[in-house]
UniProtKB/TrEMBL annotation, chain A:
<dbReference type="Pfam" id="PF00990">
    <property type="entry name" value="GGDEF"/>
</dbReference>
<keyword id="KW-0175">Coiled coil</keyword>
<keyword id="KW-0472">Membrane</keyword>
<dbReference type="InterPro" id="IPR050469">
    <property type="entry name" value="Diguanylate_Cyclase"/>
</dbReference>
<keyword id="KW-0812">Transmembrane</keyword>
<feature type="domain" description="GGDEF">
    <location>
        <begin position="314"/>
        <end position="445"/>
    </location>
</feature>
<dbReference type="InterPro" id="IPR043128">
    <property type="entry name" value="Rev_trsase/Diguanyl_cyclase"/>
</dbReference>
<keyword id="KW-1133">Transmembrane helix</keyword>
<dbReference type="GO" id="GO:0052621">
    <property type="term" value="F:diguanylate cyclase activity"/>
</dbReference>
Automatic annotation (TrEMBL), chain B:
<comment type="similarity">
    <text>Belongs to the bacterial solute-binding protein 2 family.</text>
</comment>
<dbReference type="InterPro" id="IPR028082">
    <property type="entry name" value="Peripla_BP_I"/>
</dbReference>
<protein>
    <submittedName>
        <fullName>ABC transporter substrate-binding protein</fullName>
    </submittedName>
</protein>
<dbReference type="Pfam" id="PF13407">
    <property type="entry name" value="Peripla_BP_4"/>
</dbReference>
<feature type="domain" description="Periplasmic binding protein">
    <location>
        <begin position="32"/>
        <end position="285"/>
    </location>
</feature>
<dbReference type="InterPro" id="IPR025997">
    <property type="entry name" value="SBP_2_dom"/>
</dbReference>
<keyword id="KW-0732">Signal</keyword>
<feature type="signal peptide">
    <location>
        <begin position="1"/>
        <end position="22"/>
    </location>
</feature>
Length: 446, 376
């Protein structure tokens, strides 16, 4: 659990440092803080140097002043031991590395020298007055000097001391700048960057079309700052956009719905129209009583047969049929039975009709057919089958057998129009009628 | 046990000493707390003369030595005061001003006490009390006349220096003081100052304090001479100091007695030799005889002589020896057999016709004469 938290913290820090704004801010703060920190450190060092130098001077002056009377006593008393003690006391000070108490003439009464301190600070020779020798006259109850106290001043240890202070100043100044930059960065991150990042992520992730756009609430202490206002404004904008998009979508849906409805109705009407047209066409090409093709249908089909005969050589025959004694039926037995007889013949022939054959009511009790045949015999055979079928019919309320006479005309090379064929078939029929009815005659005899 | 040993030592001393006790009466019992060494120096002389006189005067004497360490002296004094056997008399020294409360303690124990050679300072006396008054058992003190000694030394020195350089009207003096604190030293310097006041031709260029040390005296004089300066006279607080100064001067090619004059103090054997050589002007002294004088005084007191009826603080004179020293005295100072002096000659008990004491050099020589006559 803690490692997870640590990992999350690390990720957070990486993210935070990844921010360009944060990097820019850290850089700027560091430069300014370091600059100002070092400037202040330099000032501090300068002030320190003066104070330290003055204090060192005062210290030495005090030491020398307090020692001078003892040194004078030693010189007056010619006391070498006391002189050595005085010198030892003086050289115990870190800034004094040599002391000689001289009497008039070449005689040194007491002398002490210590290992001179060295400094590690380069170019520090002039600091604190540098190395120097101070000679002090010793007096006893009068203006005449009875001896001299010579001191070798060496500020090396003071320089070292001061250098350590300088280093400390610089280090603490730098550290202060770093801490300041870090703290400012953290504050900036928490107060500004994180909310902005959150807002921008929200904006890039938000789907204005989705219902109920909602932004998670900010921390409780942040309820009035500018970023929160920005968030609120953004949220309001998003909600407005979302609402308007919803309206737009509803309008579009309505339009689509309307369009679809219109198409259906058009389609239905078209279908109805087609139906009506088909019915009308059927009515135009069909005999209403028998349901067979009518005269117009026959002639249109005949044109096709004729065109194919001329193009491919496919032969065909025109068969004209006329019910025998039909007038008698109408007149004696009523039109109703006549109609029924016509219907029965038509039904029979329609049942046995081949696909390529066409049988139409030609008018009254006349029927006409188009049949694909190879030769005249085949044509007669077709006509014969039609005659037999009629002869086989048994019609209720009809006291005699129904018969039919048929004339056949086979298409020939001279046939340019259907009319010739029909005429030849009619002539053949006439012969059949005359020949005794219920028989088949063709155009060969003519 | 310790008391028995001391008694044995005393008996041995008695056996070794010459004359037998004169008085048949039970011996007077005296304890002396000596601050110095038993085997050498000034304080040995004090003990030795005291013992010689005690032997002649029938005094049983116990001496403790502190080897110049004042805490040890205090401990010895305490032991002497608190011992079960109370002495008839106690002798103390105000060495390093350490005797004030000891005097008071002895008084509290009812032991008659005499201060020898250095007495309480006025401040100390004001604190613990005066002899015969606030402290009834404190007898008083017997001290040498140091001021007179210092003055006599200076006078002799100045005269000798003037003789060495009669053509000069200004002479330089270097004073080598023992210390700046003990009364004996300051009194002698006071005597010197008295003499200087009457000698306008003498310029004291330095007053150096050398802690009674020959070595230090040598170094100071050496330092002075190495600065290229000279002097005409050296007033030394004692003989070792004088000898140190002379040695230093000789190292710089100066001859004492020719180039400059020196005086010392102590009657030391070496000083007597230099007197005879003419390199030393005078050695003052004789104060080690204070031990013997104290015995004379206590002996007389014990026998009812009103020795301290006048002043409680008695002074005895010291004597400056110059060349030529009487041969008898030189012999005595050489062998230091003090028993050759007849100390009864100084006793008022033995000479009831006297009204005071005469411890002067002539009297000393007289006492020696008689004894020497016997001995010779």
């Amino acid at each position: 659990m803690p490692t997870e938290r640590l990992r999350r913290l690390g990720r957070g820090i990486r993210t935070a440092l990844g921010s360009r704004l944060a990097r820019r801010q850290v850089r700027l703060v560091l430069i300014v803080a370091l600059g100002v920190g070092w400037l202040l450190s330099a000032l501090q060092i300068a002030v320190d140097y003066r104070a330290y130098r003055d204090s060192l001077t005062t210290q030495l002056d005090q030491l020398v002043t307090t020692t001078l009377s003892t040194a004078a006593a030693a010189a007056w008393q010619l006391d070498g031991q006391l002189a050595r003690v005085v010198c030892e006391g003086l050289t115990a000070h870190p800034a004094i590395d040599g002391c000689v108490l001289r009497l008039p003439g070449p005689l040194s009464l007491g002398e002490t020298r210590v290992e001179p301190a060295t400094t590690w600070l380069p170019l520090s020779d002039g600091l604190f007055g540098g190395r120097q020798r101070r000679e002090l006259p010793l007096r006893h109850e009068g203006p005449k000097a009875i001896g001299r106290l010579a001191l070798d001043l060496n500020p090396a240890s003071a320089v070292n001391d001061f250098s350590r202070r300088v280093l400390t100043h610089l280090l603490t100044g730098t550290l202060r700048a770093l801490v300041l930059a870090l703290v400012l960065f953290a504050v900036f991150h928490v107060l500004t960057l994180r909310p902005i990042t959150r807002l921008s992520r929200f904006l890039s992730d938000a789907d204005p079309g989705a219902a109920g756009v909602e932004l998670t609430r900010p921390a409780r202490h942040r309820h009035d700052d500018e970023i929160r206002s920005l968030e609120t404004a953004t949220l309001g904008l998003m909600q407005t956009v979302s609402r308007q998009m919803a309206d737009l979508k509803a309008a579009k849906r309505d339009l689509e719905h309307t369009n679809r409805h219109l198409e259906d109705r058009i389609r239905a009407r078209t279908r109805e129209l087609e139906q009506a047209m088909r019915v009308m066409r059927d009515r135009a090409y069909t005999d209403p009583l028998t349901g067979l093709a009518n005269r117009r249908a026959f002639f249109e089909a005949a044109a096709d047969y004729l065109a194919r005969w001329r193009r491919d050589g496919e032969a065909f025959a025109v068969v004209l049929a006329d019910l025998d004694e039909f007038k008698a039926i109408n007149d004696r037995l009523g039109h109703d039975l006549g109609d029924r007889a016509l219907q029965a013949v038509a039904d029979g022939w329609r049942r046995t009709c081949r696909q390529d054959d066409c049988i139409a009511r030609f008018g009254g009790e006349e029927f006409i057919g188009l049949f694909r045949v190879d030769d005249r015999d085949q044509a007669r055979e077709v006509a014969e089958r039609l005659r037999r079928e009629v002869a086989a019919l048994r019609l209720e309320d009809l006291p005699w057998s129904l018969t039919v006479s048929l004339g056949v005309a086979l298409v020939g090379p001279g046939d340019e129009a259907i009319d010739g064929l029909v005429t030849r078939a009619d002539q053949a029929l006439y012969r059949a009628k005359r020949g005794g009815r219920n028989r088949v005659e063709d155009d060969a005899a003519g | 046990m310790r008391a028995k040993l001391r008694l044995l030592a005393c008996l041995l001393c008695l056996g070794l000493s010459g004359p037998a006790p004169a008085d048949p009466a039970p011996p007077i019992h005296v304890r002396f707390v000596n601050p110095g060494f038993a085997a050498e120096g000034f304080w040995r002389g004090v003990s030795d003369t005291m013992r010689a006189a005690a032997d002649q005067l029938g005094i049983r004497l116990e001496i403790s030595h502190a080897d110049r360490q004042w805490p040890r002296m205090r401990a010895n004094a305490r032991a002497a005061i608190d011992a079960a056997e109370r002495p008839d008399y106690l002798i103390l020294v105000n060495e390093h001003r350490q005797a004030a409360d000891l005097v008071a303690a002895a008084d509290a124990r009812g032991i008659p006490t005499l201060l020898l050679l250095s007495t309480l300072t006025p401040a100390q006396e004001a604190r613990v009390g005066r002899p015969g008054r606030e402290l009834p058992h404190w007898l008083g003190s017997l001290t040498p006349d140091n001021a007179r000694a210092g003055r006599e030394m200076a006078t002799a020195l100045f005269a000798a220096a003037r003789e060495l350089a009669p053509e000069r009207d200004r002479l330089t003096l270097i004073t080598l003081a023992g210390d700046a604190a003990t009364p004996a030293s300051t009194r002698r310097l006071a005597g010197l100052d008295q003499a200087l006041a009457t000698a306008p031709d003498i310029e004291e260029v330095r007053r150096l304090t050398v802690d009674w040390s020959r070595e230090k005296a040598y170094r100071r004089i050496d330092a002075w001479l190495r600065t290229g300066r000279r002097f005409d006279a050296v007033w030394a607080a004692n003989d070792p100091i004088a000898l140190g100064a002379m040695a230093a001067a000789e190292a710089h090619g100066l001859v004492p007695g020719r180039d400059f004059a020196v005086v010392g103090m102590n009657w030391s054997a070496a000083a007597l030799t230099h007197l005879r050589d003419g390199t030393l002007v005078m050695t003052h002294g004789g104060h080690f005889l204070a031990g013997a004088w104290a015995m004379v005084l206590l002996h007389d007191l014990h026998h009812g002589i009103p020795a301290i009826a006048g002043s409680r603080h008695l002074r005895f004179p010291m004597a400056g020896l110059t060349a030529p020293v009487p041969p008898r005295l030189r012999a005595l100072l050489a062998d230091r057999d003090w028993s050759r002096l007849d100390f009864r000659a100084f006793s008022r008990h033995h000479h009831p016709e006297r009204t005071g004491y005469d411890f002067s050099l002539p009297a000393l020589l007289a006492a020696l004469d008689e004894e020497s006559g016997h001995a010779d």
